[in-house]
Design goal:
- The complex is a heterodimer of chains A (436) and B (330).
- Chain A folds into two domains: 111-274, Beta-Lactamase; 285-435, Reverse transcriptase/Diguanylate cyclase domain (Alpha-Beta Plaits), CATH 3.30.70.
- Chain A is built from eleven helices and twelve strands.
- Chain A is rod-shaped and about 170 Å long.
- Chain A has helices spanning 3-35, 41-119, 123-138, 178-186, 203-209, 244-275, 285-302, 316-323, 325-342, 367-383, 411-427; strands spanning 144-150, 157-164, 190-192, 216-224, 227-236, 306-313, 348-352, 357-363, 386-388, 391-393, 397-404, 433-435.
- Chain B is an alpha+beta fold and 330 residues long.
- Chain B is 58% helix and 18% strand.
- In chain B, the strands form three sheets. In chain B, strands 5-6-4-9-10 form a five-stranded mixed sheet, sandwiched between helices.
- Chain B is elongated.
- Classes of the chains: A alpha+beta (436), B alpha+beta (330).
- Chains A and B meet through α1, α2, α4, α6 and α8 of A and α1, α2, α4, α5 and α7 of B.
């Protein structure tokens, strides 16, 4: 389209508009006057009615339609308002949705974590995992996350694991601060949005303990079947960093974590018990055999002597009958303490081999030295008095000695030899040492 | 006449022109209104669908949350069958499953080819397998969450039993573990039968221990337990057998002791406890104990019955006001 035709189009449009605005009303006003140009009263009336009716009609249509338009506009405005409101509500609901999805995702990802925890049984790795989940899933790697465990001896809290955003931060409260003690004391979880506004805690005390800045924290106890195991805690320098939902998630982690930690502790116990006898704290048979095997190999490699003593308490059954079985335990405890103190200056490994049997490795001892040591042991035991029910008694032992040398092939043969020597000692009257 | 007709026609023309021009404006307005209205109704529909979705998600979240509550439930038990029972109950509550079994030890897995198999290992040694079949794909996730918790709980049971079997001493109170104590007691009872000795059983219970635990927390509770076990130990002979019986009860077997002797010992323990106080944060706690006594052979010949009768005497002591000693056969 050229500029000229465009101009033409404008002219035409303008002309039409002018015609509709100027020409039509002009014609409308002039035509009736022209038609009634007879100046008869009858025509006057007609003209008057015509204008009256037309005027009223225009007025009516005008009023009616402006009202309708105003109503429409009004209702549209209210509608717009509602749309805005709805938009806001929708966006909030959408936020809710993403938050919910995030929460579900968080809980589902927890599953993988239990799987990982289930693989290992050492306290170290379980604690590491727990700390990592709390730190990454709740705090997204911000702030500080600490795990305290109860020390079994002192029953105090002790810092076990810590994760922190700022690597320079040093956690000074190794035994926990006032907040940890609160959790400990109440055995219940804690959420603080702003520590400066929480009247429960005396911040003056805190200042002495802390150099690490934090304003909000969540903390939950680790309790498994009524046993308080520790505390898992998150804190952050910003206020209102943690929500109620975060605390709830932490609680779930702690429920699972407490059982996992208990497993770790129990496993530690089984490991410990597999090595040391519960009653006498001497090595157990299983562990002792391992040590003996190792000693045999070493002895061959370094061409070194070592001897094995097999010791059995004389008439232990009669003793049990006379004084009771608890007394038997006391005797065993006393005897083992006696053996250990007697061999303190020697390179020796002592084991409780069976009910009332003990086994001793004497490193670097040849036949003569082993005999001397065994004799010393026998004498010491014979002379040591045990007081039970205000009665003094003594026990005696029979000892068999065997030395590992080139003609002994392995640990089984060595044990057999020592055992045979011990039986020899029993047969020839007890309370004596027999060397193989 | 003609002019009248023309005037009427003119009137009509005016009306139609007016109506037409207004209709244009009106329809413009109406279009805008309709547009807004459809936008609004779309938003409302969106909102309700979002709400529905969120409600569903909330339900899903709650369900996932309750799935994790299983650990708490399972951790109450220290018995393998009950742990599995509790787990099985939960499995059937939350999802559909045809078969779900726990196979102990080195079970033959060839029979369970099409099953979902989860191994339970402790220190790389296989302890058992959880096998299940007929689980819908949508339930897999749930099953996994539950199963992992079951494995966690089962490990606890197995490890606990192991420690109990291996240990002779309780790590908290330093007294005999239940299993070891029972063995020793039975041996002692046999010995008493053989030599015609009398033997007494004391059941010691801490008064209002639960309240104390609730009020001061578990650590104070543990301290109370230790104090009581120490007090009991200080007031019995070396050869008497002290064991922990249940959570807050201690049981003592007094060898070669008749009922009169047992009452004397029990009174001594009770008084000693009365005089002690336990430091709990900023308060001094006063703890009292109640004691029930039964004696072999007049009350019972069997250890379990003997303990049971001591427990009945203890119950009487509690009923009649606590901090006292009661003998079964009086």
């Amino acid at each position: 389209m050229t500029i000229k035709t465009k101009l033409n189009f404008f002219k035409r449009a303008a002309f039409q508009k002018a015609a509709s605005i100027v020409l039509f009303p002009a014609a409308y006003l002039l035509l009736p006057v022209f038609l009634t140009l007879g100046f008869k009263p009858h025509h006057f009336k007609l003209l008057f009615f015509f204008y009256l009716i037309n005027g009223l009609m225009v007025l009516y249509v005008q009023l009616k339609n402006t009202k309708r338009i105003r109503d429409l506009k009004l209702s549209r405005e209210t509608l717009e308002e509602r749309i805005n409101l709805q938009n806001y509500q929708n966006s909030r609901e959408l936020q809710n949705k993403t938050a919910l999805k995030e929460k579900i995702r968080r809980y589902l990802s927890l599953k993988q974590v239990i799987e990982e925890i289930n693989v290992s049984l050492t306290l170290e790795s379980i604690a590491e995992h727990l700390n990592l989940i709390a730190f990454s899933l709740i705090a997204q790697g911000h702030g500080t996350c600490t795990l305290y465990l109860i020390d079994r001896l002192t029953q105090n809290l002790s810092l076990f694991k810590a994760k922190r955003e700022d690597k320079r931060i040093i956690i000074k409260a190794k035994e926990g601060d006032i907040f940890d003690h609160w959790v400990l004391r109440h055995s219940s979880p804690l959420l603080i949005e702003d520590i400066n506004k929480d009247f429960r805690f005396d911040l003056g005390k805190l200042q002495d303990e802390h150099l690490r800045p934090f304003s909000s924290l969540i903390s939950s106890p680790l309790i498994s079947a009524g046993k308080f195991l520790g505390i898992l805690r998150l804190d952050h320098p910003q206020i209102n960093f943690y929500s109620q939902d975060d605390l709830r998630f932490l609680l779930t982690i702690c429920d699972l974590g407490a059982v996992a930690l208990e497993n770790g502790l129990l496993y530690q116990d089984t490991e410990e018990l597999a090595i040391h006898d519960g009653l006498t704290s001497l090595f157990t048979k299983g562990h002792f055999i391992e040590l003996l095997k190792l000693e045999c190999k070493r002895s061959i490699r370094h061409d070194r002597y070592f001897s094995l003593l097999m010791m059995d308490i004389d008439y232990f059954k009669n003793y049990n009958d006379k004084f009771g079985h608890a007394a038997g335990d006391i005797v065993l405890k006393n005897l083992s303490r006696n053996i250990v103190s007697c061999l303190r200056n020697k390179d020796a490994l002592v084991c409780r081999f069976g009910g009332e049997e003990f086994c001793i490795i004497l490193r670097g001892a040849d036949k003569n030295e082993a005999h001397e040591t065994a004799e010393l042991l026998r004498k010491t035991i014979e002379e040591t008095k045990i007081v039970l029910r205000r009665q003094e008694t003594t026990v005696t032992v029979s000892i068999g000695c065997a030395t590992f040398s080139k003609d002994v092939s392995d640990e089984v043969e060595l044990i057999m030899k020592a055992d045979r020597a011990m039986y020899q000692a029993k047969r020839s009257g007890r309370n004596r040492v027999v060397v193989d | 006449m003609l002019s009248t007709i023309i005037l009427i026609v003119l009137t009509l023309l005016l009306y139609s022109w007016l109506a037409k021009s207004w209709r244009k404006r009106l329809s413009l307005e109406k279009d805008g209104y309709e547009k807004s209205r459809s936008e609004h109704s779309k938003l409302v529909a969106d909102y309700s669908s979002l709400q529905g979705e969120n409600a569903r998600l909330k339900l899903e979240l709650e369900e996932t949350l309750t799935l994790y509550d299983v650990t708490k439930e399972i951790a109450k038990f220290l018995d393998a069958d009950r742990v599995f029972g509790s787990f099985n109950e939960k499995i059937n509550k939350y999802l559909e499953v045809e078969v779900c079994k726990f196979l102990k030890g080195d079970a033959d897995l060839s029979k369970y080819e099409n099953y979902l198999v989860l191994p339970l290992t402790i220190a790389r040694k296989s302890i058992g397998y959880l096998v299940a079949s007929g689980i819908q794909k949508r339930d897999r996730e749930k099953f996994n969450i539950l199963a992992q918790q079951f494995i966690l709980g089962m490990k606890r049971v197995i490890l606990y039993q192991r420690v109990q079997e291996m240990a002779t001493m309780d790590s908290l109170t330093g007294i005999f573990t239940r299993r070891y104590w029972f063995e020793r007691c039975n041996e002692e009872l046999e010995r008493s039968k053989k030599f015609n000795y009398e033997l007494s059983c004391l059941m010691v219970d801490i008064d209002y221990f639960k309240d104390c635990n609730d009020k001061f927390g578990h650590l104070v509770g543990d301290a109370v337990l230790r104090t009581v076990s120490n007090t009991v130990r200080e007031n019995i002979r070396q050869i008497d057998l002290l064991g922990k019986y249940g959570g807050e009860e201690f049981c003592v077997i007094l060898t070669e002791t008749n009922s009169t002797g047992a009452v004397f010992v029990a009174e001594r323990i009770r008084k000693a406890m009365e005089e002690k106080s336990i430091r709990a944060y900023d308060e001094d706690l006063k703890i009292t104990i109640s004691i029930g006594i039964s004696t072999f052979p007049q009350d019972a010949e069997d250890l379990n019955i003997l303990i049971d009768k001591a427990d009945q005497a203890l119950y009487r002591a509690k009923e009649s006001g606590r901090n006292m000693v009661c003998v079964y056969n009086v």
